[in-house]
Write a structure and sequence with these properties.
By secondary structure, this protein is α/β, with parallel strands linked by helices. The chain folds into two domains: 107 residues, Ribosomal protein L30/S12 (60s Ribosomal Protein L30, Chain: A), CATH 3.30.1330; 158 residues, SPOUT methyltransferase, trefoil knot domain (Alpha/beta knot), CATH 3.40.1280.10. Helices cover 34% and strands 18% of the residues. The strands form two sheets. The chain has a seven-stranded parallel beta sheet, sandwiched between helices. Helix 6 packs parallel to helix 11. The N and C termini lie far apart (47 Å). The mean pLDDT is 89.
Length: 279
């Protein structure tokens, strides 16, 4: 694996890593260029384990030895040798726009996203939990929801067109790399995705604050085996159309006059209460 030392933050070979804190730039730039940024040894390792292709790695010199196993894994992959750019910490921080303290960054080629129908068809026969995200714009929330989905037995996540990018650097980091493990794709249209779920035998439950909503406790007692849980945007929650298109509306019981939880916290509570039945 070639180790290339760079001393100029303007080096064109580091273009993949420029201004990683600019959310608008990255949300537009990464999908168009077909890359995402994996941050930290553990996340890079997960990306390699699921077969994602590294374009390059970037790190401080002192991380070469501690990350030797990760570098060996990258170099031994089916895509050939991958350049490792090494620079002083000051140069790394100037390139990325933040304090690079997690060991390493890797520019990874984005895998092609499946259609909703193809993703559902690819799930194993026992798959029975899917999460739908509508217009959740905070990357931290998206990453946290993926972590809950992975930990609590969800089989896939479907992301609405205006939802934040699950492969944005912060989403990947907060998810502890689980966005690289839980099957997911982006919907073209919410209603069409719901129709596909229905055709695959899923009941859609919307987590929302409506007068007709049933208690999560009550719903969990007789929850359908194949269930898709819909979660909406921070603040406004699910749109009226998404709620109307659901088969059931569910509400988490609250105390002390609190009406709702942060969407990431709500996802964990609901996924735990509705975790798949054990066979």
């Amino acid at each position: 694996m070639p180790v290339i030392r760079v001393d100029d933050a303007a080096d064109a070979r580091l273009a993949d890593y420029v201004s990683l804190t600019d959310v608008v730039l990255r949300s537009r730039h990464e999908p168009a260029r077909g890359i995402y940024i994996a941050e930290s040894a553990s996340v890079i390792q997960r990306a390699l384990e699921v077969g994602h292709r590294p374009r390059s790695l970037l790190m401080a010199d002192r991380w070469l030895d501690p990350l030797a196993d990760v570098l060996e894994m990258a170099d031994a992959g089916p895509h050939g040798s991958v350049p490792v750019y090494v620079a002083e910490t000051e140069v790394l921080n100037a390139v990325a726009g933040f304090n690079v303290h997690r060991g390493a960054l890797a520019a990874m080629a984005r895998p092609a996203l499946a259609t909703v129908d193809d993703l559902l068809a690819s799930l194993p026969p026992g798959a029975c939990r899917v999460v739908l995200l509508e217009d959740i714009v905070d990357h931290t929330n998206v990453g946290a929801i993926f972590r809950s989905a992975a930990a609590l037995g969800a089989d896939a996540v479907l992301v609405a067109p205006r939802c934040a990018d699950p492969l944005y650097r912060r989403s990947v980091r907060v998810s502890m790399g689980t966005v690289l493990q839980v099957p997911w794709t982006r919907m073209d249209d919410w209603g069409t995705a719901v129709a596909s779920l229905h055709a695959s035998g899923f009941v859609v439950a919307a987590l929302a604050l409506t007068e007709s909503a049933v208690s999560l406790d009550d719903f969990a007692r007789s929850a359908p085996r194949r269930l898709a849980l819909a979660l909406g945007a921070e603040g406004d929650g699910l749109s009226a159309a998404a709620v109307a298109g659901a088969d059931q509306v569910v509400r988490i019981p609250m105390s002390l006059g609190v009406d709702s939880l942060n969407v990431a916290a709500a996802s964990a509570v609901a996924l735990w209460a509705l975790r798949p039945p054990s066979d």
